[in-house]
Fold each of these.
Amino acid sequence: MQQHAQEAFPWLTTRFTRRIRIVSPIVVAVDGSVTSYQAVAWAAVEARLRHCPLHIITSYAIPNGTTGRTAVSGDELAWLRRDGARVLTEAERTAETAARGDTLAITTEFTLELITPTLIARSKRARLLVVGNRGRGAIRRAVLGSVSSAVTRHAHCPVVVVHEVAETGSMSLAQPVVVGVDGTENSLPAVESAFQEASLRQVGVIAVHAWSDTTGYDLPAVDWNRIRDTEEALLSESLAGLGEKYPEVPVQRFVARDTPVRALLEHADRAQLLVVGSHGRGGFAGLLLGSTSTALLHLADCPVLVVRQD
């Protein structure tokens, strides 16, 4: 069932056994680029897995001074709406194809508000926010590359950044979920989310803990075996209790003497999803997105899920 939304999520309240149940949607941004349509396909597969609605939004805002609204003539506005309808229609078609015959509750939204604050506002009631890692760059469309960086810093829900090469086929869905574990409380929500995602997909988790913050070639002469024992114990502590909570999820543990980015990218090449925290042990408490997470958003080929600590 499809409908066009004039306001955000007018369908969120549904009657269920005489009570009102709030159904949180997956929200995905589209701008007509190949990458954004790939994000729509990935979001549709997620909505099918989670049995939740999918909300597709496009923005044709043209900044006008200090306001976020588009100031254009009537004819120009009509053209923007027609082109927006074209992009949304193609996005719906992409989502339906990715759902493979399953019925999805899909809504679409055309807005003349700036896309970044709009997505952040929608994230307050969303289960998941999905964006492409880069967009078209056309003057009348949002550049999702800058959008992805902004929403991962400020969204109120987890954010997935999808790349153009992301796969949604059966072979890809059989691959594991990789999660970065740094041994601090900052990474615990990401670790928990990784197990949840793996359980949902019926695949395993690869937990990666990188000990060194150098390239690995200029390390001082240290007792690596002793350090490995300490770091493996730290990794085990971070995973404590999750094996019992998710007994159906097989776990592989890796302690790497390398930078977190390099270690995670090595395993992400064979993963369907990479899960990271918003900032790690090297970040300040108020830092919204750490250097490792930022680098992985640009370098990883698989979708990257950024989970912020509450």
Amino acid sequence: MKQISAFLSAFLLVTFVSCNNEPVKEETKLATDTTATTKAPEPPAFQPYNITIVQHKVKDFDKWLPLYESHDSARKASGLIEIALGRGLDNNNEVTVSFKTEDVQKAKDFTKSPDLKAAMQKGGVTSPSTISFIKVVRDDNNLIETKDRLLVAHHVKDYDAWLKVYDSEGKETRAASGLIDRGLARGVDDPNMVYVLFAVTDIAKAKARTSSSELKKLMIDAGVDGPPAISFYKLVK
């Protein structure tokens, strides 16, 4: 009996130790597996948004700027939030301003208002304003050192056909010409009006590219059916 009791005690001891050790091993393994399979949350999907771009010439940028800034509350009341301000590279009295637009109709009404017309006259605007209401469908807002920009606007016969040609050219080809893709947009009222924004890393290469016969042929192949509007400018805010 003493031998049986000793054997039974030894068996229970081994069983107790095994039962107390085994769950720890399983829990540790489970914790390791859970950590290994946990995925970081995916970033939210890009949501297209509207912006308004205003371009015109001014008599003196330094005099125009404080008057423009003093009109900010009126713009915000119409749902226009400034997101970028640039000066022309070849003529630094050419101004390009972009506004995030909460309500396109309110923005349109504001751009036609007598109040804005008076503010522009007071600020020394010397040319008719080109005002574009557009929907951004691609946007790379990662920080980038260069402040030089190129905005290209043109009309196409078929947006989807144009996009295939544009994408097939590839970012790398454009980058080799000093052009880094930053944004792509379509006209709010005419979706076949296309706007492409680039950061410019090499002005000479970029200008050579925009005037090249190679690009002209590519645009014809893509269905561009009108002369492009090309604006080089430098971001100042």
Amino acid sequence: MDPHPPVLRTIARERPAPELGEFLRSRRDRITPADVGVSSVGRRRVPGLRREELARLAGVSMTYLTRLEQGQSQNASDAVIDALARALRLDDDEHAHLRALARPRSAAARRPRKQEQPHRGASQLLHAMGVPAVLLGRFTDILDWNSAGHLLMAGHLESDAPSRPSERPNHLRMLFLDRHTRDLYADWAEEAALAVASLRYVAARFVDDRHLAELVGDLSLSSPDFAQLWAGHMVRLCTSGSKRFRHPVVGDVTLGYEVLHLPEGDGQRILAFSAAPGSAASAAVELLQPR
């Protein structure tokens, strides 16, 4: 019996190339020949496009596509990446993800990182906000939160938990493994899928990070829901939207959210919630503010 499930072998490899191959295969699998006008002849062993069919649609050689999927070519041109994205009908987020996987950063840029620390300016902004907000690390560690953000997302945890690096809450771990957090989201399945797709997007830039490998490995073993979503290779850059909460204090409330990605480009971002002035949701947010 293989002691390392495929989802763990994928993330634990030292090179990012297998991620590229698996992403391309997952996108090929979701497109049928009929979707792109390819005639299907004979018995098919794959549900979607064959590799040679993708190569023909993208206008690249079969040999080159094979080398690209196997990580033997890490200098794909913009033209090749764009052609593959068009052939696979990738959206903007998937297109950017493909580019990040096809052009892995140098080994020096992927060296092991020190323990993540919140950006001081981001923390200052966070605590100056009059709305619930949290500062997320590259892999969804909660690096800081203001009082309203703490009470909205994790009032059952100690307020100073983010200040203790060894005990920091992690939004993904909470979402899949913490009963209170799971009950908090009225649309939990949608929230879980979005969170995993967002991690996929970020992970392409930090594929060799040990903390990422540990997070994905632990969650894959502990949560079949996470393992299934991670294996689906869905990708999304999370920027804005709305979330429906079933909050133990303020009740059912729907809040808009914005994700403010920091310009440093290291994956830290502020997640801030708001509601229309004068609305019932706005009144609920006021109840979370410190008195």
